[in-house]
């Protein structure tokens, strides 16, 4: 007797069971499981599975953009390094040095952000003796090896910051540039990957403190902390007043911006430039206070200015530093990484047990930028 053909309903149920099981497998091994059979390849490649897998992927990873200075008989190199938060905290130097999960970048590249397992990279070509540059953006999925086509070339001022995020309403990934010319005029432009051109947004009311300040993605928006109506290309922080500070939130769905008010508890200008941070669904504002304390504010409900809460205030004495610069936030806003007295010293503060860990990283690891990262199978058009 011939075996009866499998009932269509049973086949569908089997497919759903396989999808459910595979959706919990980490991204790297699940890509290899495509080779098991055609049906598994079809399941893993399906957009529904990609989104389900992304939703279930662990959120405790980071991607580091590192720059290794030149040494005798060696060239300067730039890389992307994937790491768990735990590994990085335990040994930052070894993590940055590790060859595993390292991906080379061109020296003219700059990472603009990370979202849903994709890393947005800008290639920048500066014009000699001019205050302008040409810039292209592309997307990488370091785990899957995916590389998108370049965006159209954009000619902008050298004073240009950028940010990268996801617009769920159109299922599209967008990059935004914020440029300031010599007269102080600020212009924002938007590109949706897969499109053919850049779109100019409405006038922008502030400019980030530094071109290295990437827009912080949260709730479908990119957020920058900057100066209102800057005059010219440079500013003197000693002359900045509290009413000049503002958070600008750019909505990727509508391509419009709005202002987010600073916490009401900030009643004087910090002695150094504050920084923004994002972890999970919360926005953070980090700053020094009277050059004696480090303060962190958390907006518990993004968009609700009344939800600003002072998360911590800790003395430099407890941290064992004389000065510091806020850097990154990890582990759901529990671990703060600060730059200490010199650029080779990292200070880890864990507010759960009030512990402090200081690490001197080697000179060849002195420069890196960390981004929140999640493993994914995402490969947009």
Considering the chains and any ligands shown, give keywords for the structure.
381 residues, Neuraminidase, 5-stranded antiparallel beta sheet, 2 domains, 7 helices, disordered N terminus, mainly beta, single chain
Indicate the topology.
Blueprint: H1 8-22, H2 27-32, H3 38-45, H4 47-56, E1 61-68, E2 77-84, H5 85-90, H6 92-97, E3 102-105, E4 109-115, E5 118-126, E6 132-141, E7 146-147, E8 154-157, E9 160-167, E10 172-180, E11 186-192, E12 199-200, E13 206-208, E14 216-218, E15 221-228, E16 245-251, E17 256-260, E18 275-279, E19 282-289, E20 293-299, E21 308-315, H7 316-319, E22 325-330, E23 335-339, E24 345-350, E25 355-360, E26 367-373
Antiparallel strand pairs: 1-2, 1-26, 2-3, 4-5, 5-6, 6-7, 6-8, 9-10, 10-11, 11-12, 13-15, 14-15, 15-16, 16-17, 18-19, 19-20, 20-21, 22-23, 23-24, 24-25
Helix pairs in contact: 1-3
Describe this structure in words.
The longest helix has 15 residues, at 8-22. A hairpin with a 4-residue loop joins strand 16 and strand 17. The radius of gyration is 22 Å and the shape is globular. The model is unreliable at 1-5 (pLDDT under 50). The chain has seven helices and 26 strands. With 381 residues, it is mainly beta. It has two domains: 10-52; 57-373, Kelch-type beta propeller (Neuraminidase, 6 Propeller).
């Amino acid at each position: 007797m011939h075996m009866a053909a499998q009932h269509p309903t049973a086949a569908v149920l089997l497919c759903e069971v396989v999808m459910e099981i595979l959706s919990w497998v980490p991204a790297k091994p699940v890509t290899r499981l495509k080779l098991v059979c055609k049906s598994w390849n079809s399941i893993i490649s399906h957009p529904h599975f990609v989104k389900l897998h992304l939703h279930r992927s662990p959120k405790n990873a980071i991607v580091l953009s590192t720059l290794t200075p030149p040494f005798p008989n060696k060239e300067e190199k730039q890389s992307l390094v994937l790491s768990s938060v735990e590994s990085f905290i335990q040994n930052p130097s070894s993590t940055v040095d590790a060859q595993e999960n390292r991906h080379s970048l061109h020296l003219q590249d700059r990472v603009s952000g990370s979202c849903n397992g994709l890393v947005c990279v800008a290639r920048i070509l500066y014009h000699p003796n001019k205050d302008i540059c040409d810039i292209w953006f592309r997307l990488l999925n370091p785990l899957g090896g995916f590389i998108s086509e370049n965006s159209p070339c954009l000619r902008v001022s050298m004073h240009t910051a950028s940010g990268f995020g996801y617009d769920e309403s159109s299922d599209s990934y967008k990059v935004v540039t914020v440029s300031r010319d010599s007269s102080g005029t600020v212009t924002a432009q938007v590109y949706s990957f897969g499109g053919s051109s850049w779109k100019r947004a409405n006038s922008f009311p502030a400019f980030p403190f530094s071109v290295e300040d990437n827009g912080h993605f949260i709730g479908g928006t990119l957020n920058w902390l900057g100066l209102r109506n800057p005059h010219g290309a440079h500013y003197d922080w000693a002359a900045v007043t509290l009413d000049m500070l503002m958070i600008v939130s750019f909505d990727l769905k509508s391509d419009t911006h709005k202002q987010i008010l600073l916490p009401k508890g900030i009643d004087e200008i910090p002695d150094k430039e504050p920084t923004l941070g994002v972890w999970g669904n919360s926005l953070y504002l980090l700053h020094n206070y009277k050059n004696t304390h480090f303060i962190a504010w958390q907006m518990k409900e993004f968009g609700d200015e009344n939800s600003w809460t002072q998360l911590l205030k800790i003395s430099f004495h407890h941290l064992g530093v004389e000065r510091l610069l806020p850097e990154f936030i990890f582990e759901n806003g529990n671990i703060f990484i600060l730059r200490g007295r010199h650029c080779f010293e990292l200070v880890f503060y864990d507010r759960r047990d009030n512990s402090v860990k200081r690490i001197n990283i080697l000179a060849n690891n002195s420069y890196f930028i960390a981004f929140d990262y999640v493993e994914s199978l995402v490969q947009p058009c």
